[in-house]
Each structure stands twice: as C-alpha cells, then as structure tokens.
Write a structure and sequence with these properties.
Length: 308
C-alpha cells in the first residue's frame, strides 16, 4: 500500500469516499462475482461487529455481487444449492485508514491473529491464491466488518441518509432546509446524506463557490442549484476517472484529481489565489478565499470541535 502523502504538515486525505468505494466494488465485483469463497481468515477479531452468522458461514458460498451503500462495501453471497433466496452479506466499512487489496497470489498461510501487521481480514475465493485482504494502517483502529442476512439490521446503515448522488435538486433542497448547521458539516454527516467525506466536500464546495461556513438553511435557490450541480460534477467525475483502475492505484488517482483539498499554499487552479486551510484537532479542510468567501480568510480555529 502506498505511503501517505503529507502536505503542509497534514496527511493528505485518502479515506475512501463514495467514488473510491464504488471503484473498489466494481473492481472486486468484476473479479469475484460468481466465484466460490473457499475460506475466510480473521486476523483481528476486533473488526467483527456481529457473531451470527459466524464468519465461517461464508465458506462454500458464491459471491453474487459486490456493491455499496454510501461508503459501505457490500459483498453479497448466496448458497449455491438454493441461489438468491439465502443471502449473507459481508459488509465492510474502511473508515479513515482501511483499504482492500485484491491479489492473485494470496498466501495460503493464515495471517497471525492479533499480529502487528495491517491485515485484518482475508477472503479466499476462486482458485488458490485469488482473493482479497482487508487492511488498516495506523494505530487508530476504526475498520468495521459485519456479517448479516440483511444490511438494514446494521445500525450504522439503517441510520444513513439518502445516497447523495441519488438526490434531485429539489430533494437536496428539502434536506438542507430541514438541517441546521454549517454546510461543510451537513455534507459530511452520513445521517443526513451518505457518501461524502472531508476531501470531496472541499472539492464540491469549491466547485459550487460556497463557503464551508455557510449555513445550510440559508442557501438561496441559485446556491442550491450550484451545490447540486457540483455534487454531480465532482463525484461522477471522480467515478469516471477511477473506472477501470486497479485498487492499488485508486489513492494516487484520488489525490491527482483534487483541486483544493490538501493543497494548502498552492495556487487555486481556477483563480490563482492561494488555497487556505482551517485546522482542527485531527483534520483540516481547504478552500479558496476568492472563489468561495469573497476574499475573506476564515479564522483557523485549531483544536475547535466545530467540524467533527
């Protein structure tokens, strides 16, 4: 896995968001759909958030499809004896530092439980050597895996807002009219709209020419139209850019397509102004004063809890 890129003292955002999860789903679906799962190795029991069905129940089943709900990766499996009437879903939330690595040369030796390596889960499917590892870098372990017969029984999925790409302009306007808070917070609150994280919210707001601190409820009709158009432009553009890319290259492709996020101190590609940053305890966001705030530089409220 590629080392994190550091820009201006902050790690560039590589958290998988909607475009990356969609690209991972498409990539793995194209390789695993129709293949049998031979076994599942769990190196970190802490990532498993469910116990019934057990992870061992996936062995012998067929991968039906790989898809997503918001930023959650869903591997749907079926019993070859009865087909689609008996689905079991492997649900993966990669969180901030998780990733998935497909390989045609997986080791047949199970990863050591409780080991210090990045591997949390290994799924063997198809021929010996085929399958994927679910990994997590760093010390903050937030990767989560559920095995369930119905994704709706997972609380985190059950409380997700509508998929952000599925909203019409009027539906988006209705969501924002009912939601208090700054627009940056609202866009990244998965209970309000699902799919957007820190990086793409910066890109969307830059494209829409909106301040991250603007009130969601105060947006006028023109601003809502720009926001809806920017969501489609940024996310569908990223999906198109990532289409067909190997999973190992997705992080680099994401970084290459960012115009303001993690570009502190660099010129805005639209107007040439310097991209600025607002920093918090564990993350930061970037914006262009000329494009988004009428030239005003926002206060850098480091250690603030405003944008969790």
């Amino acid at each position: 896995m590629q080392a994190p890129h550091v820009e201006g003292g902050w790690q560039t955002e590589t958290m998988p968001e909607l475009p990356e999860v969609q690209a991972i789903a498409d990539y793995v679906d194209g390789r695993a759909a129709g293949l049998p799962i031979r076994r599942v190795d769990v190196a970190s029991l802490a990532v498993l958030k469910t116990a019934d069905p057990p992870y061992s129940a996936l062995a012998g089943r067929i991968v039906d499809r790989v898809w997503r709900i918001g930023k959650y990766l869903i591997v749907t499996t079926t019993d070859p004896a009865v087909g689609g009437v008996d689905e079991i879903h492997l649900i993966i939330h990669l969180s901030r530092a998780g990733w998935l690595r497909w390989s045609d040369h997986l080791s047949q030796t199970p990863p050591r439980p409780g080991g210090k390596g990045p591997i949390a889960l290994r799924v063997h499917c198809g021929l010996p050597g085929e399958g994927f590892d679910v990994t997590e870098a760093g010390t903050q372990k937030r990767l989560a895996v559920w095995i369930t017969r119905d994704p709706a029984t997972v609380d985190r999925i059950n409380t997700l807002g509508p998929d952000v790409l599925g909203l019409s302009r009027d539906e988006l306007a209705a969501v924002f009219a009912d939601t208090a808070g700054r627009i940056k917070n609202v866009l990244t609150d998965q209970r309000t709209v699902a799919g957007v994280g820190n990086a793409y919210s910066d890109e969307i707001l830059h494209t829409a020419k909106l301040s991250p601190f603007a009130s969601a409820r105060s947006l006028d009709d023109d601003q809502l139209t720009r926001l809806h158009g920017a969501i489609g432009e940024v996310l569908t553009g990223a999906i198109a850019r990532l289409e067909g890319q190997e999973v190992a290259k997705l992080k680099g492709e994401k970084r290459s397509g960012l115009r303001v996020h993690a570009r502190t101190g660099m010129p805005c590609p639209v107007c040439g102004d310097t991209v600025r940053e607002v920093s918090f305890a564990d993350r930061s966001f970037q914006y262009c004063p000329t494009c988004q705030t009428g030239g005003r530089v926002l206060a850098d409220r480091r250690m603030s809890r405003l944008l969790k």
